[in-house]
Design brief:
The structure holds three protein chains of three kinds. Chain A is an all-alpha fold. Chain A has six helices and no strands. In chain C, 75% of the residues lie in helices and 0% in strands. In chain C, helix 1 runs antiparallel to helix 2 and helix 2 packs antiparallel against helix 3. The chains are: A mainly alpha, B mainly alpha, C mainly alpha. Chain B: This is NADH-quinone oxidoreductase subunit L.
Chain lengths: 169, 621, 102
């Protein structure tokens, strides 16, 4: 039922990037390489957003995830000064059971996805625009927006307190 | 006093409680005093009750015990002729036995416990005797069984005593189940446990005849178990492992008398069913001759007496089955006297010979223990039915009853049994008291005075006990009066029958004399030509062996099988469950290692299982 | 035309890979990475439904916006907690944080 179209090819390539990045992140050994693989994957997700007519989100994704969060993570790695290698685990059973459990969950998800009758309709994406998005956010969802602002502030203060040097210890 | 008859069983019960509480504090004498005084009080009250009852009428008193629906179960006391007589017999024999025990049990470490058990035993029997309804009767019936278990196994450190106690308990239990079924059947059909109402129902024909027969037979099964009738007699001789006073009590007044008393008490039910009467008469007759023949060749002084008891109980059953209600009860009474006497005398002999019980090693006691010898002789004469001793009158009543009831076969069996009885009793007497002494003189000790005078009273009763009935049938009239039981008919043969039986008994005595004292006949006069008969008798007809082979061994296998089943299959399952739980515990302990990742993993697995569980069937549908 | 299922499947794959990483990675920083990946997988679903859903409209994108914001806050707090933990226990090994025994 999937016709080969431009969108399909683009989706295929981008999702390959995304999944590849994710899998590389899991399997790479050096931590810095992992961060790079993750950034690659998150960048791919921005591409997916473009395919889904969410250009503003794609930009936000690139800015926040590929930029800010990755850098934050690098800082985390650097500041904790650990040996930047993921050691080979001795927890073989743990990994095996995790794999089985996650695999079962994956099976259930995929099974559910492919057995759910979706409408198969496409929204009128030509009306989607950043202006409308902004309008929705600032009109309809203004209270959640403010709440998120407070959350960010609290997270900022909290992060400073947590990461800051403890006194009198 | 009749209205306060409930106090009679209370004295032994109180004695039991006191003795049990102070079993470590009381000296032997104190214990003996407590027990004997309680029994004496019971005896006094019983005598008062009997005196009052001689002129008065029945008394029935009771309290409500349980009430459900329309049914009320009561407990209470009833005093009628039979009860009053039994009260006197039980408390009297119990009192004498307790006095005697003070001498017999001297030196035993647990005299207080012994007296406590005797008190409980007496209490149970007295309670059984005054019960006005079947349920209460059954309760005391079981209590009697428990007490017999405790007393037979009193010397529990002897393996034989332990085995005998178990055997007595288990064998009588077979009978108890019969009685229990009878009690329930009676309740179903008559709607009441009260004996009076049951009798009314039987008389009015409210119970179908077949059921009456069934009930009567089941009651009789209970009596067979308790009174040691064939085929449940095997426990009685083994019960000789208990102390001799206990044997006297069991054989004369309490345990075995309970069976005969039960049949006598429920006599109207039996009267209503000819089949049951036949069963009672023939079982009694067979037991009488069967046990008497075994008694001929036994060598343990107490075992001979035990088989004699079985045989005499058969006599009583025979009498009851032949409609000789008064005769049966009369014989129960006289037998209580002379059998208690014989046992106590045997106990005295055993004490004198330092617990030697084999009659082949006794002899010549007449010179040293003439008093005991006279008592024993009195008992022997009484049980053999020589006039004017008590046994003569009661035995002739029985034979007359059988004769008048038209049961010639039963009558003949009774006569042959009378012959056998006198023969084995005098064999015993001659072997123990006559002949040359077979033990060294220094080993023969004296008999304490406290043991002598209870025997004296019993000897007196054995001599005079028959005159309550003769002349003039005083006892039978009084017993039958108002109870609706037809007294045994009197007929022309009434003169010949006693003569005949006396001659037969005398023949037995003379034969025993010839064989064991005078020695004009060799001892193997009978056993030489009939060796297999002798062996058969000596091994008690192989009844124990047969039971062992047919019942005990298969049960043993079954027991082993079940034990194996229990140990390996049930126990294995239990152990498997335990192992499983332990294993699960160890596993789960491993999971709780404090790492967030492990917890998250468990959550994920839990989520998967939850989804699968909730959507199973729909997911792949 | 693309089916929504493909996007959903992509989301599922990313989610499971992230979950696997969360469960098995021994470096706490990498655990945080994987949590971000899982959040992104959820975002893909939201955006996909904003285009192909039954009542598709731009609200899905609004929610994604919020999620990204919260995820950013979470990343910041997470790294801060990691610093605090590192100061106390001198390690970032997730399997060495084993004080959560009931």
């Amino acid at each position: 039922m999937i016709q080969v179209s431009g969108e399909f090819i683009a989706f295929f390539v981008v999702s390959c990037f995304v999944i590849g990045g994710a899998v590389f992140m899991i399997h790479l050994v050096r931590v810095v390489h992992m961060v790079l693989a993750l950034a690659f994957s998150l960048l791919g997700i921005a591409g997916i957003y473009v395919l889904l007519n969410a250009e503003f989100l794609a930009v936000v994704q690139v800015l926040i995830y590929t930029g800010a969060v990755s850098i934050l993570m690098l800082f985390g790695i650097m500041l904790t000064r650990h040996r930047d290698r993921e050691e080979e685990g001795t927890r073989l059973w743990h990994s095996v059971i995790s794999f089985v459990g996650v695999g079962a969950l994956f099976g259930i998800l995929i099974h559910t996805i492919y057995h759910t009758p979706f409408a198969g309709r496409t929204a009128e994406v030509e009306h989607y625009s950043t202006a409308r998005l902004g309008e929705t956010v600032f009109k309809k969802y203004v209270i959640p927006f403010e709440a998120v602002s407070v959350l960010l502030l609290v997270a900022l203060v909290g992060a400073v307190i947590l990461a800051g040097k403890e006194r009198n210890t | 006093m009749v209205a306060n008859a409930w106090i009679i069983p209370l004295f032994p019960l109180i004695a039991f409680l006191i003795l049990l509480a102070g079993r470590n504090a009381f000296s032997q004498n104190t214990a003996a005093w407590v027990g004997s005084v309680a029994a004496l009080l019971s005896l006094g009250s019983s005598a008062a009750v009997l005196m009052e009852r001689l002129g008065g009428s029945d008394s029935l008193a009771g309290l409500e015990w349980l009430s459900f629906g329309e049914t009320t179960i009561r407990f209470g006391i009833e005093v009628n002729q039979l009860n009053a007589l039994m009260l006197l017999i039980v408390s009297g024999v119990s009192f004498l036995v307790q006095v005697y025990s003070a001498g017999y049990m001297k030196g035993d470490g647990r005299v207080s416990v012994f007296y406590a058990y005797l008190g409980l035993f007496t209490f149970s029997m007295l309670g059984l005797v005054i019960s006005p309804n079947l349920l209460q009767l059954y309760l005391f019936w079981e209590l009697v069984g428990v007490c017999s278990f405790l007393l037979i196994g009193f010397w529990y450190f002897k393996p034989e005593a332990k085995r005998a106690a178990k055997k007595a308990f288990i064998v009588t239990r077979i009978g108890d189940i019969g009685l229990f079924i009878a009690v329930i059947l009676t309740f179903i059909h008559a709607g009441s446990f009260e004996l009076a109402q049951v009798f009314d129902a039987v008389k009015a024909g409210e119970i179908p005849p077949g059921t009456v027969t069934l009930i009567a037979l089941l009651i009789f099964v209970g009596a067979v178990g308790k009174s040691g009738q064939f085929p449940l007699h095997t426990w009685l001789p083994d019960a000789m492992e208990g102390p001799t006073p206990v044997s006297a009590l069991i054989h004369a007044a309490t345990m075995v008398a309970a069976g005969v008393y039960l049949v006598a008490r429920t006599f109207p039910v039996f009267e209503a069913s000819p089949a049951a009467m036949n069963a009672v008469a023939w079982t009694g007759a067979f037991t009488a001759i069967f046990a008497a023949s075994i008694g001929l060749v036994q060598n343990d002084i107490k075992r001979v007496l035990a088989y004699s008891t079985v045989s005499q109980l058969g006599y009583m059953m025979l009498a009851l089955g032949s409609a000789g209600y008064a005769a049966g009860v009369f014989h129960l009474m006289t037998h209580a006297f002379f059998k208690a006497l014989l046992f106590l005398a045997a106990g005295a002999v055993i004490v004198a010979l330092h617990h030697e019980q084999d009659i082949r090693r006794m002899g010549g006691l007449w010179e040293t223990h003439r008093t005991v010898g006279w008592f024993f002789l009195t008992g022997c004469l009484a049980i053999s039915g020589i006039p004017p001793f008590a046994g003569f009158f009661s035995k002739d009543e029985i034979l007359l009853a059988a004769f008048h009831d038209g049961r010639t076969g039963v009558f003949l069996v009774g006569v042959v049994t009378a012959f056998l009885t006198s023969f084995y009793m005098f064999r015993l007497f001659f072997l123990v008291f006559r002949g040359e002494r077979r033990m060294e003189a220094k080993k023969v000790g004296p008999v304490p005075r406290v043991m002598i005078w209870p025997m004296g009273i019993l000897a007196l009763l054995s001599v005079l006990g028959g005159f309550v009935e003769y002349p003039g049938h005083g006892l039978s009239r009084w017993l039958s009066e108002g109870s609706g039981i037809v007294p045994a008919a009197e007929g022309e043969a009434s003169f010949l029958v006693p003569l005949f039986s006396t001659v037969v008994s005398l023949t037995g005595i003379v034969l025993a004399w010839a064989m064991y004292d005078n020695k004009s006949l060799p001892r193997d006069f009978f056993s030489r030509p009939l060796p297999w008969t002798w062996r058969l008798l000596h091994r008690k007809y192989y009844v124990d062996e047969a039971y062992g082979k047919v019942i005990v061994t298969p049960y043993g296998w079954l027991g082993h099988f079940l034990a194996g089943f229990d140990r390996y299959i049930v126990g294995g399952a239990v152990r498997a469950v335990v192992k499983g739980v332990l294993l699960t515990g160890a596993l789960v302990t491993g999971i709780q290692n404090g790492q967030a990742q492990t917890y998250a993993l468990v959550s994920v697995i839990g989520l998967v299982l939850l989804i699968v569980g909730l959507t199973a069937g729909r997911l792949f549908g | 035309m693309m089916a929504v299922t493909s996007y959903l499947a992509l989301g599922a794959i990313l989610f499971c890979v992230g979950l696997f990483g969360v469960l098995t990675k021994r470096n706490a920083v990498m655990v945080l990475f994987c949590i971000e990946l899982m959040l992104n997988a959820a975002n893909i679903n939201l955006v996909a439904f904003s285009k192909y859903g039954l009542h598709a409209n731009q609200t899905g994108q609004v929610f994604t916006l919020f999620t990204i914001t919260v995820a950013a806050a979470e990343a910041a707090v997470g790294v801060a907690i990691l610093f605090a933990l590192y100061r106390n226990r001198n390690t970032v090994k997730a399997d060495r944080y084993d004080t959560m025994k009931g």
